[in-house]
Amino acid sequence: MLYDNLAVNEQGHLTVGGLDTVALAEEFGAPLYVLDEDKLRENCRTYVQALRENMPEGSYPLFAGKALCFKGLYLVLNEEGMGADVVSPGEIYTALAGGFPAEKLYFHGNNKTDEDIAYALDSHVGCFIVDNHQELARLDEAAGVRGIRQRVLLRVTPGIDPHTLQAINTGRIDCQFGVPIETGQAARFVADALSRKNLIVEGFHSHIGSQIFEAEPFCDAVDILLDFAQAMRQAHGFVAETLNLGGGFGVRYLESDPVVDIPGNIRALAQHLRQGCAEKDYPVPKVLLEPGRSIVANAGLTLYRVGGIKTIEGYRSYVTVNGGMTDNPRYALYKAPYTVVPASRMNDAREVTCTVAGRCCESGDLIQENIQLPEMQRDDLLAVLTTGAYNFTMASNYNRLCRPALVMVRNGKARLAVRRQTFADLVACDL
Length: 431
Ligand SMILES: *Cc1c(COP(=O)(O)O)cnc(C)c1O
Prior knowledge:
Blueprint: E1 6-8, E2 14-16, E3 19-20, H1 21-28, E4 32-36, H2 37-54, E5 60-64, H3 71-79, E6 83-86, H4 89-97, E7 105-107, H5 114-122, E8 127-130, H6 133-145, E9 150-157, H7 170-173, E10 179-180, H8 185-194, E11 199-205, H9 216-236, E12 242-244, H10 262-280, E13 286-289, H11 293-296, E14 300-311, E15 317-321, H12 330-334, E16 340-341, E17 352-357, E18 366-373, E19 381-385, E20 405-410, E21 413-418, H13 423-426
Parallel strand pairs: 4-20, 5-6, 5-13, 6-7, 7-8, 8-9, 9-10, 9-11, 11-12, 12-13, 15-17
Antiparallel strand pairs: 1-2, 2-3, 4-14, 14-15, 14-19, 16-19, 17-18, 20-21
The site of pyridoxal-5'-phosphate (PLP) has 15 residues, from helix 11.
């Protein structure tokens, strides 16, 4: 199995965290998001411990809420010693409603409106990750009005393409987030920030990408950031207290994907950082990481009820399920790979090559193509694995489908964390 929290019981049913998925679907309905809280906590601890053991005091991971966001999650994150990234007032609201402390929130976004800035300041979020000059000006002003000195990190782009491993790739400089180092613009951004009397500049932020399996691209980013930090010390006497290296560690969606050694990668990164700082006689900064996917993806799976199988003779067989791009748009968007298993018939031979299709009026509404399954029957249960990240948060009400419930399992027990939408929810905003 892809992860150690998945198994098959004596009835040939898939289990998650020791619970029978067929029973879960009977009790809570389908489609259903299932989140294994034990796995989630284990993933949090891996990051918290690795940062604590290898990086300077005060280093800790921030969970990127865009990967998964609902009230009950924030209780767990807080208990596990995580901070959290938020990118909108809605995410701030959710985190606070879930009891998360505002001072551990880091507010991201490349276009924070005046209302967003006001809301975040009035909510006392710990830190803004400032994206651009206009935001600096408005934030400084809004903080001044409130008599606040706001902590900030400055988002810069080191120009790394993590998938080509090129140290400088102008393609990555060309993006809508942050200010590029390479062009000299980031230096002016720092000068601007340091001149703002209502802002406390704590350091720099960079996010180089996603689904990265090794430490090397992060080490390349550290090299560029340290050169930049050194130049800013020389220019302004400014010493960065914090480096936020963003998110992006990969997860296994398929058996063929590598296993990611997160503690090993963090150790390698720490060693690289300390060495780079020693060479420049630069005080080793605190390190923040912003994992999203690698905290929640493998803690989640989605259960679907099969509607039937339709074979287009001479072409292919479609297995239809009672969800689709409304609960998981990632295949439709960018052909994201997933492992699909016959949750109610795990021991049957998988002899049929088929395409899993959703129920939306859209030919692109596919979950996965050309996978092996047994001859599926109506009412069988299908599980799509590793859906804990970027499924729930990217869901929609297309075709006026109700969003699925989310169930958390822990210590062999399941509890509803987000209820299924009702028809009344669908028209709740319609006047
Ligand atoms: C998307 C994103 C993350 C999380 O990335 P993962 O690949 O889910 O770990 C972290 N930080 C920023 C700024 C992001 O945009």
